[in-house]
Amino acid sequence: MKKISFILILIFSLTVNTHGQDSLKIKLKPKSFLYENFHYPNFANLKIDTVKTLPFTHPQKINKTSLLIYGGITLATGIGVHIYQSNAWWRNQNSHFHFENDNKYALQIDKYGHYYGAYLLGHIFSSTLEASNLDLESSYQYGALLSFLFQMYVEIEDGFGPNWGFSPGDAGADLLGSAYFLSQYYFPVLHNFQPRLSYWPTEKVLSGKTNAIIIDDYEGQTFWMSIRVKDLLPKSLAQYWPTFLMLAVGTDARNLDGHGGGQREYFLSFDIDYDVLPLHGEFGQWVKNTLGLFHFPMPGIRLSPGFAGFAIIY
Questions:
Q1: Bond before 305 cis per omega within 30 degrees
Q2: Which of 2, 116, 117, 287 has the most CB atoms less than 10 A away?
Q3: pLDDT tens digits, residue range 169-212?
Q4: Is the Cβ–Cβ distance between 252 and 265 less than 8 Å?
Q5: 262: left (phi over 0), alpha (psi -120 to 50) or beta
Q6: 237 CB contacts (<8 Å, ≥6 apart)?
């Protein structure tokens, strides 16, 4: 059972003024050089020390009005998530707090969902804090922390549900997702590895025969790690790789039976580096960052079980 309402989270994310990623050749805005200027051509040939020693201006004064607005949106979203999950999963089902090992559930696809959800929340929280003029490092730190705390709040409430329980596996995935988001600040090369999600509703959702929605529809979800190949290649080879083209490794599950049975699939697909889009300014960069969280249909192959080629994979 997914513990995050992706719908509410994504609606909230549309209110966030995030920052995109442009080339180092573009003038740096010291407050947010990682978000707005991270996409380095031939990254492997750029010394990391160059990034860490970029000049910074004095921090701007925190915009309290903006912080209150974003804080209010965050609180309202959190309340909405709580009400939805309470009505859907927890109402009249309280019991003593207990643990439950569900690591075989849905072939661990739900764990990928926790990882991605924590990463997504870290991105949202960090962006709102940075938009309120909090310095970049603190924005990353508090964004990751708030993401993990929100996930833990949901996990603890699950611990009182007789049909679920506190899942150490879910909590571990939450921690890894938040930690990976924070690690991208301290280890900039990790920006070349972007978690993404694609979704196509299955028949049980389209038919309306069940109450399942996207967060329960595990067979409709595919989780990807998209890689900026050009930035990782030696300079002699990088010049031949298209700037816009990424590679993505993905996984999903089919024929799930709710008892650990089913079939795991693995894919290799092309993907798009949306940082190359000619969109500028804060809104344009927000669009690029938002697109960068999702994998859209692209040509690819299935690696396992059984090799197969596809005109599009979603």
A1: yes
A2: 117
A3: 999 999 999 999 999 999 999 999 999 999 999 988 888 777 66
A4: yes
A5: left
A6: none
